[in-house]
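Exercise 3.2. Students should predict the tertiary structure of the chain below and write it as structure tokens, then compare their answer with the key that follows.

Predict this chain's 3D structure.
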Amino acid sequence: MHHHSSVQLLKRNRKDMMHWIQNMPSADRSTMIKDAIKGGRTLRKIHMNNEKSVIAEVHDEMMQPVIPKKARKKKENQNLELEDEEDYDNNLQLPHVENFTVNDYVAVAYQDDWYPGCVIDIIEKNQAYVKFMTTCSSKGFFKWPLRENRQLVDLKFVLFKGFTPDCIGSSGRQWSISQFKDIQSLFELYKNTYF
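Answer key:
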């Protein structure tokens, strides 16, 4: 029996066992206690040896070189991927956003990354104030910051518009954008072109 299981069994039945031990002759009681201590130590030793073997097994597995799935897949499909990437790059073009619309969601490119936001006020045909969301720790998820982040944005920095973030969970704190991968690809193209 496992060490922890036997301890739990003894704890559950301790009243009956204490009554039984108290009614035993003292010679039998001392022999039984010595045997119990010896058996407990043996059981604990077996438990510790099993734990050491599991730790050694985990260590051995971690020390073996592992080829990531991506690398394996690249080796198998290297030619196909190169062709697909070339076709995708040829088909991907930067969008031309014509104008701002109040309450429209936009993805705006900055030098480090792109950020989603909502147009709250139009200043001129090509400039508007945008209330921005901020990134979460999980990639592809955004949240509204505690302090409002409002910036004046020029139309030429808008990568994408017309999407609506989806609320994740019941708290309403995290939002996802279903077009995240498309916008990310546009940003990579934008970054390679202008930065």
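Discussion points: Residues 26-63 form the longest helix (38 residues). Residues 3-63 form one domain.
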